[in-house]
Structure formats: C-alpha cells, structure tokens
Amino acid sequence: MAGAQQAQSSRPQEVDVVVIGAGFAGLHAVHRFREMGLSLRAFEQGSGVGGTWYWNRYPGASSDSESWVYSFAFSPELEQEWTWSKRFPEQPEILAYLEFAAQRLDLKREFDFDTRVSAARFDENTLGWQVTTEHGETVRSRYLVTAVGCLSAAQLPAIPGRDDFTGEAYHTGQWPHAGVDFGGKRVGVIGTGSSGIQAIPIIAAAATEVVVFQRTPNFSVPARNHALSPKRVAELKQNIREIREACRWTSIGQPYDLRDQAALDRPREEVLAQMEADWQKGGFEWMFGSYNDLLVDPRANDIAADFVRDKIRGIVKDPETARRLIPTGYPIATKRLPLDQGYFETFNRDNVTLVDLRETPIERIVADGVRTSGKTFELDMLVFATGFDALTGPLNRIEIRGRNDQLLREKWSEGPRTYLGVTTAGFPNLFMITGPGSPSVLGNMPTSIEQHVDWIAECMDFVRRQGSSLIEPSADAESQWCAHVKELADGTLFPQVDSWYMGANVPGKPRVFLPYIGGFGTYRQLCSDVAARDYEGFEVR
Ligand code: NAP
C-alpha cells in the first residue's frame, strides 16, 4: 500500500493531457497520445482495464460486432498476434484481448486504477483543466479527454421496495467478479433489453426457476455465433486491412452496409426470401445490411417487424406466451435491436415463466420476491437488466465545469449540446470520445473510437503547430450541429419510440435523440472536412 501511494505521488501533477477511462477508448487514446510525445495522466475507476467489459460480466455477455473488427485497428502486430475463437466475441475473451493489448503496448503503467475522477474544472487563468480524483489528488492538464463509455452509468429502476429484498440482487452492468451461482435458486430477471436477452437463456439453464418480468416485448435476431475455423482465421488475418478500411466508410462501421435498394420497390416474395436468407446467416446484417427504407418508412419497417413476429410465433410453443413476447406498437430496431442465442426458445422451458408487466405491473419488491398486481413471486435472486443512463450519464456523473464555472450537466439540462459529438462550447480543450451527437452506439464502437482518437490527436497537433494552447467550438457551430443531428433523427422512425436512444429510460431525462444517425462514413467525412478547413467552427488561440 505504501508502495502504491509512493507510485501515485511520484507521478507528475502537471501534464499535457488527462484521459479518463481504460476501456477501448482510454487505452487507444493513451497509446496515441504517448506516441505523440504528450505527457499524460490516466485514471480508471475499475481495478483493471476493460471498461464495459470490466463491469459487464453477466452470463452470456457478448459483443454484437464480428470479432475481427471488434478490436484495435491501429496495430497490425496486435491484429496478427491475437486470434479470436468465435464470430461474436464473448466478454471473457474481449477482456482477455484488452488485457493482452494493454500488456503488449505497455499501457497499464500509465493508469491510476481504482481512481474515480470526481470533478474537472476549466481554469481561465492557465487555459487548462484541474482534474480532481475521489482520493483528493488534483492534476493540471492542457487537455481533458473523456473515454468514459456510452453505456457505463448503470440504471437501477425506482421500483418501490427495491432495497427491501433480502436475497441476492445484481445489476448486469455491475456484475460481481467472483461470478454468481444460480444453482438451486429461483431467479427473477427484470428487463428484456440486450443484456436480459443475452443472460436469460444461460440463467435458465442453471437455475431452478426463472421469472422474466417483461415491460416492453423486444424484437431480437439470432446471432448464430460459431467457432472460427483455422482457415477462416487465416483468411481474415490476410484481408483484415481491406476489411477495416471498408468498415470505416459504412453506415454502422461494420463489414456490411445498407443495400442501395428499398424493400418497398421490390416484390414482397423477393424481400421475404432475402430476409430469410439473412436470418439464417445471423447477426445485425439482417437489419443493417438490408433494405435502405426499413428505418425510415413505416410500411417497409412493418415487413421486417412482421417477419420477426412470425418467427417468434414459430419458436414459442405456448400461444399465450408467444402473444406476450411479440412486440407491437413500435417499429423494429428503433429500440436497440438485440442479437440472441436461443432467447425465444428459452420460454419453451418448464422452469421459465414470463410475466407481462403491461397486464400485471410490479407493485413493489418485497423481502422475498416481487409483488405484481397479479401475485407475489417468491425469489432467491433478482437480476436487474435495466440498462444505463446512456451517453450523457457517464459525463454528467462527473462534476465537469467549464468557463464561468458552468456545470456540464446544467448546460445539458435540456439535452446534450455538442459540436461534432466530441466537443462542447464553453468547455475549451475538452474532448469527449464517442460523445452524444456522434455515431458512437449506432455501430461498431472500436471503429467510432478509432476515428475520434485520431481526430482529437490531429486536432491537438494542429493547435500546437499554430503555437496556440486553446481550442473551443463556437456556440453557432454547436447550434448548427445539434440542429443537424436532430433533423437527421427526425427523418427516421427513431424519435417516435421510448428508448434509451431518446433518453426515455431515465426519469426526468430530456427527450433528445442522442447519437448521430447520418452514418459512420458520412460522419467521418464531415469531421475530416472540418479539420481540412483548419477546424472550421472552432476558435483556436
Ligand atoms: P436496455 O436496453 O435499456 O433494457 C433495459 C430493460 O429493462 C428494458 O427491457 C426495460 O423495459 C426494462 N426496464 C427498465 N426499467 C424497468 C422497470 N422499472 N420495470 C420493468 N422493466 C424495466 O438495457 P440493456 O439491456 O442493458 O442494454 C443497453 C444497451 O447496452 C444495449 O441496447 C446495447 O447497446 C448495449 N449492450 C450491448 C450488448 C451487446 O453488444 N450484445 C449487450 C448488452 C448491452 P422498457 O423497454 O419497457 O423500458
């Protein structure tokens, strides 16, 4: 312990840049800035690297991105040395990958782990940041770069009696590192988003009984995960550079893109046959490598939604359970579409009960279970798969103050305001990797992160080459960006729906579509154009 304190106090108190977070974004940023010769400090609240994958250790946790692109693209060495075992990587393997990358690039030594940044204040006199940790240390830096993740602020529901439960209770996003034993237990799962849908089949296979409390039925597409053969691995490694480059320009940063074709322009039988073929392949390609009108025209969306509804009817044996599981009243994929491995099939098991909270709402959590308006379910364990305060939550939980002591969460009280989703007016020299108003969560996160880290690094270099020390977006550029982000979202079906994309899952959160939906490739080009025009929309001095 004395050694740890010694190490901490021997670190510099004044640096070029402070990075918060040691997930994909923080690791990448630290590597990039160090290569540029910048001095830095980096803080991570967890005890190790991994970010999302450090915290989300629930059973079944897996990425919905193909493994070969769910990784760092900046290092051909890492790419060749690491071999993914499956099409969709599972949490232990992703965490092992991030450990491997951190080790290989010698990144861990840059981080203060177990150290939450509690506050950051822009200092008008020094034109830099004062960053304070929960341990009371204050570090001064020219730049502050947040790499705090988009889905890292876990959200527990305000259900009456939540703290009365005397059994074990876990949130999927804060899963115990020692693991959880479901054997012989009656487990209640609240929530049927991606986390619940991934966890429920595995919990059901291990527990005595599982009760799924479903508020909104969810669409889901089969992942069809499988092992990668040595031949496939060799092919991928050989072509990875071209695959990566293609991903950078697609709409969701994946190795496929929307077809240049509308479902409504094609004969219905052809569309259904294509959907069936894609369904058999599994993965997001079914939706996001498909017709280009599915997310903008409700009639096209209905074709896809009905397709999945038929699939659920075909899988779930009990017609009453199938009816309750079938989503209605909102367009498919306007709530984040999960990929599953046997989710709907799980409801054919004798030990699984579905409780439709629209028919029988939860009245309260009691000491030994959950009481709905229908009955009390006695439980030994409760799993909250209830999601996150997305995008703004992780930033707002830090007391970030810009010019005139303005608090970021107050500036954003009616919704986040950013320029390019990476900066915000009144907060000079602050960069938010995958911040609100950037594509971020709408696709492959490492692709988004790479683009932001490179853009930020080049921007800092530009400021340095100007002999300047400050960069800040103008209020005008920010307003125009926010209007553009909104206009694009309004051209889709997304804003009609209560989803975390809209902030609707957090009581009191303003209803604003949070990410940029114009596509990764388009966004990348826009950011490059801004840079090419000497950082148009920014003041540099
Ligand atoms: P989520 O999508 O926000 O789902 C939360 C679930 O909890 C919803 O079913 C919600 O119902 C329910 N819920 C919330 N409050 C409730 C309450 N008071 N009573 C009853 N039910 C309640 O959260 P998530 O599943 O953790 O996923 C969040 C995001 O993280 C995903 O969309 C995805 O982007 C990411 N993620 C990705 C992966 C992956 O790559 N495979 C895996 C997990 C998570 P309503 O729908 O009615 O609000």
> Sheet bearing the most strands, described?
8 strands, mixed
Could you say which overall geometry the principal axes of the C-alpha atoms support? globular
Mean pLDDT: 96
Question: What amount of the residues lies in strands?
Answer: 15-25%
Bound molecules: NADP nicotinamide-adenine-dinucleotide phosphate
- CA(first)-CA(last) distance: 43 Å
Give the uncertain stretches in residue-range form: 1-7
- Given the helix and strand composition, which structural class is it? alpha/beta
Computed CA radius of gyration, to the nearest angstrom:
23 Å
Annotation, overall tally of beta strands: 20
Helix content: 25-40%
Number of helices: 17
Write the layout of secondary structure elements.
Elements: H1 2-9, E1 14-20, H2 24-35, E2 40-43, H3 52-55, H4 76-81, H5 91-104, E3 111-112, E4 117-123, E5 128-133, E6 138-146, E7 168-171, E8 186-190, H6 194-206, E9 209-214, E10 221-222, H7 230-247, H8 268-281, H9 285-288, H10 298-315, H11 319-325, E11 339-340, H12 343-346, E12 352-356, E13 362-366, E14 369-372, E15 376-378, E16 381-384, H13 392-396, E17 399-401, H14 408-411, E18 430-432, H15 445-465, E19 471-473, H16 475-490, H17 520-532, E20 538-540
Parallel strand pairs: 1-2, 1-6, 2-3, 4-17, 6-18, 7-16, 8-9, 8-16, 9-12, 10-11
Antiparallel strand pairs: 4-5, 5-6, 13-14, 14-15, 19-20
Bound molecules: NADP nicotinamide-adenine-dinucleotide phosphate.
